[in-house]
């Protein structure tokens, strides 16, 4: 079997760096472990300075300390307790704004200024162009279709028969299990427990409502209490068990999340007049639909979970600006975009089944992130469903603008102008 050209090319690059024996020597474990940092879970100015003293002594430049551990960060360090360990400072990410974005939703019904934190040039401009287009079309209609965050523990028994006995006990003890779980939270509700058997292994799909929180920790603590009750009361005991068995789709794109949803399931739609499409987006409906057909074929042929252009761009920037768990973009950005001709012009629909976000808890109370929610007018209790609808409307704006940019031949030139304009 011949060696693939890409393998030969990379081996050539490695050999240009060093001889194989020298590379092998670099990969050999070294004796004597480095002295570890003492773990300092509670941020404070003193703790930050203590860590920096150790790092600067080891050669980390003082300029990094000045930039990361500025005066305001040191004075507010205690604010970050519960969000980070071994804190050494804060990172400044530029924040742009999109809007006003008109949202005609079940929970979000207003014109919103949407903060986006990103280092990617052209991103804010693209979403702003989409917001302008939907604003000229009357706004985005948005509906929340459901909610529920999964945590899925697993129990391994000696046999299929024991697994079946356990499931039978779970079904008959559902009320007690729900009570045990809900005793850990004043906001969460355990909506369902769905057992899934694979031989001697039982997964319990525990679905929760999490109020205005994204709810990742909430469902973890509740499910841990549920498992403790099961281990104490079940007539058949597992050989092993795990609080999360990688079945829920937590921070991963999955077909389970796509079909059943994990978080908030939201759909958004706009019907755009032809003249708005052409004058605001710079492409014809025929060009956009032609590109959309080919892009969907590309998604199908490469096995993508969902079919959309770039939900992750807008969600990551929104999540950074509003204190969400950015890793949840891995699942939140799964979804579908559909474009078709309408009597008016162009009908655009997006559906996101896995929006994990909140307006309380997590990083939403940190100074900059709380300010981001203030910009939206969605800080605190009672606003999480509205934030989900704004997020879906934002994603629709991004789908419109990027699709039109590629279809109309603007994609490369826009990035050259915005990303390199200051250097050329």
UniProtKB/TrEMBL annotation:
Pfam families: HMG-CoA_red. The keyword Transcription does not apply. Keywords: Oxidoreductase. InterPro entries: HMG_CoA_Rdtase, HMG_CoA_Rdtase_cat_sf, HMG_CoA_Rdtase_CS, HMG_CoA_Rdtase_NAD(P)-bd_sf, HMG_CoA_Rdtase_sub-bd_dom_sf. Belongs to the HMG-CoA reductase family. This is Hydroxymethylglutaryl-CoA reductase (NADPH). It comes from Roseibium sediminicola.
């Amino acid at each position: 079997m011949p060696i693939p050209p890409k393998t030969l090319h990379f081996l050539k690059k490695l050999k240009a760096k060093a001889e194989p024996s020298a590379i092998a020597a670099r990969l050999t474990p070294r004796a004597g472990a480095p002295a570890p940092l003492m773990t300092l879970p509670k941020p404070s100015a003193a703790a930050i300075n203590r860590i920096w003293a150790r790092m600067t002594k080891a050669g980390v430049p003082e300029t990094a300390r000045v930039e990361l551990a500025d005066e305001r960060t040191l004075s507010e360090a205690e604010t970050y307790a519960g969000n980070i360990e071994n804190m050494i400072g804060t990172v400044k990410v530029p924040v742009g704004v999109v809007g006003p974005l008109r949202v005609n939703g079940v929970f979000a019904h207003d014109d919103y200024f949407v903060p986006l934190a990103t280092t990617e040039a052209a991103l804010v401009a693209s979403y702003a162009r989409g917001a302008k287009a939907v604003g000229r079309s009357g706004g985005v209609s948005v509906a929340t279709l459901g909610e529920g965050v999964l945590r899925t523990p697993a129990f391994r028994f000696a046999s299929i028969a024991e697994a079946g006995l356990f499931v039978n006990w779970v079904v008959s003890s559902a009320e007690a299990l729900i009570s045990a779980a809900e005793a850990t939270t004043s906001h969460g509700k355990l909506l369902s427990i769905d057992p899934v058997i694979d031989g001697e292994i039982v997964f319990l799909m525990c679905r929760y409502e999490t109020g205005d929180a994204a709810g990742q920790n909430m469902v973890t603590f509740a499910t841990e209490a549920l498992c403790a009750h099961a281990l104490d009361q079940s007539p058949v005991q597992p050989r092993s068990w795990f609080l999360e068995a990688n079945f829920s789709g937590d921070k991963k794109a999955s077909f389970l999340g796509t079909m059943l949803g994990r978080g908030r399931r939201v759909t958004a739609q706009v019907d755009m007049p032809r003249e708005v499409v052409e004058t605001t987006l710079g492409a014809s409906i025929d060009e956009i639909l032609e590109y959309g057909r080919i892009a969907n074929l590309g998604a199908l042929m490469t096995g993508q979970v969902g079919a959309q252009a770039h939900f992750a761009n807008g969600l990551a920037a929104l999540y950074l600006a509003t204190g969400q768990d950015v890793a949840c973009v891995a699942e939140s950005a799964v979804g579908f975009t559909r474009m078709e001709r309408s009597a008016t012009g162009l009908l655009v629909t997006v559906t996101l089944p896995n929006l994990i976000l909140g307006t309380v808890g997590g990083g939403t109370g940190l100074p900059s992130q709380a300010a981001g929610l203030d910009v939206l007018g969605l800080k605190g209790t009672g606003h999480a469903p509205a934030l989900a609808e704004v997020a879906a409307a934002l994603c629709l704006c991004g789908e419109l603008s990027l699709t039109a940019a590629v279809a109309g031949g603007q994609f490369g030139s826009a990035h050259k102008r915005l990303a390199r304009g200051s250097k050329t």
